[in-house]
Each structure stands twice: as C-alpha cells, then as structure tokens.
Amino acid sequence: MLITVDPLKYYKTNPYIRLISKGIKIEKLFINQTFRNKIKNLYLVIIFLLLLSCSKGKEKPEIVKVTVNSEIINCFEMFEVDVVCNAVYSNPYDYDQVTVRGVFYSPSGKTDTVDGFYCKNFTYTPPDKWPVSDGSHNWKVRYTPTEAGKWKFQILCQDKNGKVSTIKLKYKCLQNNDQGYLRKGKDNYLQFDNKTSFFPIGLNIAWWNENLITDYKRWIDSCSQNGINFLRVWVTSWGFAFEWNDTPLKNYEIRQDKAYFLDWLLEQASSKDIYIQLCLNNHGQLSTIHDPEWNNNPYNIANGGYCEKPSDFFTKNEAKKTFKNKLRYTIARYGYSTHIASWEIFNEINNVDDYEKNVPEINRWINEISSYIKQKDVNKHLVSISYNSEIFQPEVWNMPTIDYTQLHYYMNNDELEDIVYNGIQNYLAEYKKPVLDAEFGLCSEEIDLLSIDSAGYHIHNVLWGTSFSGAMGCGISWWWYNYIEPAGLFHIYKPLSEFFRDVDFSKNSYKPCRPVCFTTEKTDFIIGPAFSTFGKSPETNFTINPNGSITPPASKMARYIFGNIWNAEFKKALCFNIKNNQKTLFSIHTSFFVSQNPILSVTLNGKNVLTKACKANKIYNIDVPVGNNQIFIDNLGKDWIEIKQFSVQGYSSAIKSYALKSDSSVIGWVLNKNFNYGNIYKKGIPKPIKKAMLTFDEMSDGIYKVEWFNCENGKFINETNSRATNNHLTINCPDLLWDYAYKITFHSK
C-alpha cells in the first residue's frame, strides 16, 4: 500500500478530505456546487494562511510518503513502514536532531510508541551474493503486533522546527500460532507469551571468521540440523558494530552495511527458529589490557570523543547520552524481533580498565542503562550482563531490570561439569533468578583442544550436566570457529535436543536434586576450585565426606593460593578434613600458570610433609593414612599458585548423577566419572561400570516407569518399572560405559 501524503490535505480541521487506504488517491466529498465553492474558498484561505505562516517562521518537517509492507499481517510478525520525509538535520542518525516515530493503537485500546530509524537500502540476492546498495536512504518504523484485529497507526516526524503527523491509518492483524516473545517463567526457566516453555540449547557464534554470509549460513544450518536453538552473538568493532572510529559518534552512515548484516542474520536465525542473545558491547572496547581496543574507541578523547580514560565512559554525561542514542537505534531497528532472546548490555564488564576502582559508578551505569532499555523497548525483551567469572555483585544481579544472571567458566579441569554445576547452584540460591552459563571451555591458550579432546568429551559432559542443574538452559560453549566446527562437533547437541523436546518446564515445577549413587567400584574424587575470581577464597576449611562430596561446595574454593609478598592481602591457607578407611593419595594439580617464586607447603596432621618450589602443570602427591586427617596447603613464596584441581585416590563412587525433580517425575543424567577428557587422554577409554544404582528421596510410594536414553544418539534404550517404598525410590542403571539420560514418571499405586 502506498499513500502519498500532503500535510495541507489531511489536517483534522478539514473533515471533508480523507485518505483512501488502498491507493494513492485523495478523495473529496461534495454535496452541491454551492457547497463546493464554499469549500474551495475555505481551502484557498487555509493555504494562504499556512503559506503566510511559513513565510514568517521556519518550515515544519513534512511527511512525503508512507509505505507499509502489507495491509494484512500475522500476530508477532514484523509490520514495517517506510517513510519519506523532509526535515532539517545534519545527521539523521542523531535523535536529538530528528525523530521519526510510529504510534500504534491495538484493537483492545493499548497504545505503543516506537522510534523509527534512518538507514541505507541494500539488496541481497540469495544464496550468497554480497549485499549491494544503490545509495538510497529512507526512514523505517518497525513494530510487531501482538493482538489479532484491526489496528491503527500514525507516523510522526519532529525536528528543531516542529512536529507533524499523519492521520490514523489502518492495517489488519490475523491470529496465528506464533509463540511470541521470551519471558521469565516459573522456577527460573523461560517461556513464551503463550506459556510454552523454552529451553535454550546454545552455542556462542560471536562473529564470523572469513566471510559473513557463507560462515553464518553454514553455522546456522549446522545448528538447525542438530537442535541448537540459541546463539550468543556479539556486536564488535570487527563485526556488527555500526559505530566505531571510522564513524563520527552518533553517525552510523559509514557502517550501514554492518547494521544491514545484522538484519540479515536475524532473518536467517528466525527462518530456522533460532533465538539470539545479542551482546551489545565487548570488554575490549574499554580496555588497554584485556583484548585492548581503547586506543581505537571513538569515545576516546584522542579520537574526538569525550573520555580521557575508559572509566569515563560510565560517568561522563555526553558519553552516556551518545551511547543511549545508539541503544535507541538498536532497539528501533531490531527490537521488533521475537527471535531476539535478550539484550546483553556488556560482555565481561569486569575486564574493563580500573573496574575494581569504579564498581559503584559502573553499577549505577548498569542500572541506568538497563532501565533505559526497558523504557524504550516496548516488547520488553529480557536484559542481562556478564562477568568473566563467578562475580558476586548483589547490587547488579538483584536489579529488577536485570532478568537473569550469567556465569563464564574456563578451566582445564577433568570434571568441568561439576564446577559449572556448583556455580549455578550458588547463583540460584543467592539471587532467585534464572541463570545461564553463557561461556564455558577448556583454556585453549594452554592446550591444543583438537589434540587433547578432538571428540568433544568435555563439551558433551558440560552440556548434559548443566541441563539438569536448574539453569535456564544448557551451558553455552565457546571456541566455535577453531574447535567445534573443525572437529565436527555440532552433532553433540542433537541428542540433548531430542531428549528435551517434550520436557515442559511451564507445567512441571522442576527443581535440581542429586540422587545417591551406589557402585562397587571406586574412582578418584576430583575437587575443582570453582571460585575463579582473583581474590580471597570465600571459604578455606573443607570437609571431604565419605559419600564423595565436599562441604562447603568447591564453588566456594578459590583457584589461587597466595604467597607472602605480592597479593598477600588475599592469603589464607586451605584446609581439608578427610576420614578414610584405607590409605590413600591426596594430589595437588597445578594449572598452567604460577606467578613469581611460589613455594608449595603441605602439612598433614600438624607435620610438614612437603615444601617445594612450585611449578606449573605439575602434580604433587601426599600419602594419607587411615583415619581422621587434616591437610593444610599453603604458599610460602612470593606470589600466587593457580590450582587446576585436587584429587583423592579411590575415594568416591565411580558414577555421578544430576537430576531435576517435580512432584510426580524426575529427569536426569548419570555419568561414568572415569569417562572424562583428561582421563581418556592419559589412560584411554575406561571400563564400563556394572551394577550401579541411583536412589531418590521424597518420592511418593508406588510404581514408577523408568525410561533410559542413549546420550550419544538420543535414542530410547529400554523401559523398566521400579517401586518406591517409604518415600525412597532405587533404580538399577544399565552397564555404564559413558552416560545415560533417564525419565522417571509415576505410574500407579
């Protein structure tokens, strides 16, 4: 539909002129010749007065043409309005100079006002032709109707000389089966507007590698084929950012191709029903240390910006105002999409320069920016932020404008899934919000991933382990372009997707639980320090329990043991209490990093048993006798030791299980603990575990159906029945080489 609009012809003061919605025709209503002459004379007077007014003052903006993508549209589909208008401005991307907005009136009486945006037009010819532009521009207004029925809308244009608007125009919205936008559901899971649950099975694909079109098409196709429904994408200077040092601040003309590419990516993801967590800033932009980009940042005063140092970005009013302009443009252009899962304000914000010195200021900035997003985004997409480790920032995580918390874990620990699982438990308990492990991986700078774990064992185990942790989705792996794709590991995700396909988190109140595991075989008990923040350990005294658990959890244990000279304010020895009925070996595995001249000191039951200059990537063993034992681990040197893990030889059950339990059902995962990347790399594929059992407490008495699934291919294996008595249910596991998933449902009394 094309409507040509002349402001002189649609003022509400002239009720005899109206727009015909199905064409460009302007229709006048006449009753008789006398009335015709009166109207004509009135019309000429109006024109004369308006021209006189314009000659005495500045001209108001003019809306010249309005075009919509369709007169009839489905619910939750984009309604797009192209607008041609005349206005006074030097920079059409600056909302302080000129704004085009849409006002939308729903059938039920709700009114939404959304910003429009100025853009360069591109043409893309599938399948992989590079988009081209003829240099033309126009304004667009994008809106997603959420109700079926007859809608009305107006287009407004405002510059320094005034404001004009169209009359209310019409379009129709049809009911369909679209699920709507993602929201927080009950029990810290996600659901759509129609209450259907959504469980993110995701992957980081933050930027393209060589060619945007071919890379992202290939990756998205691989994701879709293997059940991946969630991607984390960054807006970076080398990627989708439409403002950087080659553009003036608040002027996005030079990088309009980047903005168009993000349009294209959203369309690609939407066509495959994949949802995107869009990360709006990466830490390097405000860092001179971590992936430094500050010297090229347009906010840097050296590049014509407002900030003498990175931390000024969070406090300078002009910097905040300019950033909000970019947010307005981002929300106006992409906020229509139901396939934007969430806005991530900043990736690893604690990696910006002088973070620790500016925590209060940065927290205030987070609150201001997240509140601004909620104000401007009429579709109320979820909002979050991330840190590079397990950062306890209650002031941020408890903000009502931050919808879910995030964790990032990079550790070369044999049982990485335990570390991530425990971190998730901490966050669920502390903040009562959905939580997502948005990045995990082995530290590829330290090891060759393709050599040490070409089969992706650690990814498989973390995906399954985190899926039964109470997190809102599975852990989100990193290293997509230099590990997952080269190793051909997309297939790992498909069985997980198949298993969760019919799990409804909106109907079942699932809570994480840990069944008791029984086996006749024992294996090493691995303790992975999971508090990765560089600083004092939250807890220092731990008890290793006979059932193969540790109290407090290892998520309260820091990865670093500090020395006496540098960072000495963090120094505190670790203490382990252990009761064992046979002699064992306690091992300390150092990571790939140690600092200057650390000296490892170990005291067993009050007697020093080891004092040695500590090296990176080494194992130090202590013989532990039968009985009650206490082990102190200290650093007598100058600076810190980083710990990969501790282990107690032959101390725990050879299996472990994570599960989610509702009133009448359990879903879970059981793993042969010897089947991990480190053990396989050193010793090869382990032997199967036989005669393993799992026991669940607080189960109503009766008969339960137990279904077993193969985690390598997602296929059903077999079904058995087990009876719960005295509120305890014990099930027998099939012979366990690697892992199985299971579903337990109440059958009958």
Structure report:
With 749 residues, this protein is an alpha+beta fold. It contains twelve helices and 43 strands. Strands 5, 7, 8, 11, 12 and 13 form a six-stranded mixed beta sheet that branches. A six-stranded antiparallel beta sheet has the order 24-37-38-43-40-41, with helices on one face. It has a six-stranded mixed beta sheet with strand order 28-27-30-35-32-33, with no helix packed on it. Helix 3 links the parallel strand 18 and strand 19. Helix 4 runs parallel beside helix 5.
Briefly say what this structure is.
19% of the residues lie in helices and 34% in strands. It is an alpha+beta fold.
How does the SSE layout of this entry go?
Blueprint (H helix, E strand, L loop, with lengths): L1 E3 L12 E3 L6 E3 L4 H24 L5 E7 L3 E3 L4 E8 L12 E7 L5 E5 L1 E7 L8 E12 L5 E11 L2 E4 L3 E6 L7 E3 L5 E3 L4 E2 L3 E3 L7 H14 L4 E5 L21 H16 L3 E5 L37 H18 L5 E5 L14 H18 L5 E3 L9 H4 L7 E6 L5 H16 L3 E7 L7 H4 L4 H11 L12 H5 L8 H8 L10 E3 L2 E3 L3 E6 L13 E4 L5 E2 L8 E2 L12 E7 L3 E11 L4 E6 L2 E7 L5 E6 L2 E9 L5 E13 L1 E7 L3 E8 L4 H7 L9 E5 L4 E9 L5 E9 L3 E5 L6 E10 L1
Feature tags:
43 strands; alpha+beta; 749 residues; 19% helix; 12 helices; single chain; six-stranded antiparallel beta sheet; disordered N terminus; six-stranded mixed beta sheet
Low-confidence stretches: 1-57
- The backbone outline, from C-alpha atoms, is globular
Give the number of DSSP strands. Answer: 43
Q: How large a portion of the residues is in β-strands, by DSSP E?
A: 25-35%
Alpha carbon gap, first and last residue: 64 Å
Q: Rg to the nearest angstrom? A: 31 Å
Structural class determined from secondary elements: alpha+beta
Sheet having the most strands: 6 strands, mixed
* Helix content bin: 10-25%
Mean pLDDT: 90
Enumerate how many helices there are, as a single number: 12
